[in-house]
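[Meeting: bench + compute handoff]

Bench side (C.D.) handed over the final construct sequence. Compute side (W.E.) agreed to return the predicted structure before the next meeting so the bench team could plan truncations. Sequence as handed over:
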Amino acid sequence: MWLLHTATAHLRCFNSPEEVPGGYAILSHVWDSPDQEDTFQSVRNLAPATVPRDLLSAKIRDFLVFAETDGHEWAWVDTCCIDKTSSAELTEAINSMFRYYALSSVCYAYLNDVAADTWDRLDTYKNRTGFQLSKWHSRGWTLQELLAPRTVVFFTCDWTPIGTKYELAELLEGTTGIPIAVLRFERGISEMSVAARMSWASQRTTTRVEDETYCLFGLFGINMPTVYGEGRGAFYRFQEELMKRTADTSLFAWGRTMCILKLGEVIPDPRGHDRHAESASDPAHHLFAPAPVYFRGSGNIIFEDRGVSSVSTPHEAHGESFGASDPGAIEVPHFAVTAHGAHATIPIIEITPTFAVADLFCSQDHRPLYLILHRSSTNATVRGCALYTCGLPAFRPFRLPCRLATPRDPLSFLSPTPETTWRMTDVYISSRPSAQSLYRTPELWTRVTHLRDNLSAPFHIRPPVLAAAAATAWNLVDATDLPAAWNGVPPLVLVFEHRAVHNRLSLVLGRCDGRSSALPAPCAGPAAARPHFAFVRFHTWPHRDPLAGVFAHSCGTDHIEGWADGTRAFEGLSWRPGICLSTQDALRVQMKFRRSPLGARGETLDLEFEVGWGEGPRRDIPFMRARIAGSTFSPRGVRAR
């Protein structure tokens, strides 16, 4: 462990944090651009005769000065105390990072985007909001830097103290979703469920995709090699390692939850199955989540560390007073990683030969959570054990593939009959997509972007446009099938969904043929001479197929040729599903078109768009309760970044 001398900035190596005399101060900050940060090599290469501290960047120099004034002889900074040219040292530092922060005497959290002249009173709304909106709260690495040290002091951009973690615990809880008791060390991190801890990281981002996983090592006590370049595979590898270390099955409690009255409700009508439902690359069909963001909304999931008898009623399995299990027959769930997926021994109720539900020993809002399991056929077995995938296929009209089920009324959900008893069963569950599917272009993207193969198509949609939408949490979930020689009729419908709160909207693109307009207009003639149109349909209620219906446009407002600079903004309300609730949120979509350089005769337009949250208030739909179970809203909220 390399440390900086606070008076000179000379580097010295210690074998462990415990060997540092008098302890050390540690810095938590958001990195500037790489060329503005001091590195291990740049500090070591400074002339020995000089005082290196005077030649460092202002941020590191001021940190060392403040640490020295505060009585610390040694200090640690992640930018210049790790030799990142050594893969072994980098791996050791990443695996030890939580320990470095936990054993520090004090952690200084430097918020370079919080101005000092606005920080007059902590209780003013302007100052509270400025603190909560700091970029520091949105970065992945700063999560462990907040949780590990006992003493964290926050500073403004000019090193004016704001307050300590203990003092600001209430404000931090509203910003991060981390309970006050955890922030104040009144409750251990390991006492929180895996799903809850994952939810703390779900709204945070990192520069490298692998760091979304590596920054969680200390939070879960995991040590494993770092392999930059493995992409999303890092999070799957992390979850496999975590499954070996913990019995907490809330690791699998992510994704949509359907609220049901009885078990029969989890069996969809096969005639309504979505044609894309059986895609093996759909993350909802596997045991492990693709990224921490999928745990958003899981902050109040509780894991009940208990076993069940080999045969028990659902009420007994969840600790209800309907009888007690035989203590001598207690069994606990068991999971193991295999080449066929996860080999699980868990309580299961088989509803049909191809559908079952598994008890996850978790609850949310005092309701038990069950994992829905599905077999493609009764012949899907491994070594005599049933082979399942997770969740229900997406089915019309909702197209909402659900992984979890929860009862509206836990007391009347099931009756203790022989047909509705939990039985400890050995099964195999698909745990992750194939390695090839992680890097393959999604099928829907291919279906939309293949329009670029047709130079005379009225619209071209480039893959970076869809990637940019996905990066801000808006995923393409459906699209119309179009012929190779598409000329703009019928219109192209692109359905996007927010992966956290599941709002939906559709972008509709086409060429006016007179019949597709809501208003009469003289648009007849050759297809190439017809104007382009575009508009947004906001999904205000779930009971309709997003691709069904007539997509009629208004010639007076929707013709792109009449837009200033090819740009127009649309605003509307979009329905947000949840557990036994319904809410409408205001959304704003800005669409921009330009002539495609690949288009023939200049008739092809390239699409660009941005989705944001509108200024209008959230509107609750009548007769439904308006709240998001497990979500913590802050000024940052669930806005796409």
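W.E. noted at the follow-up: The chain has three domains: 2-191, 249-436, 441-620. C.D. will use this when planning the next construct.
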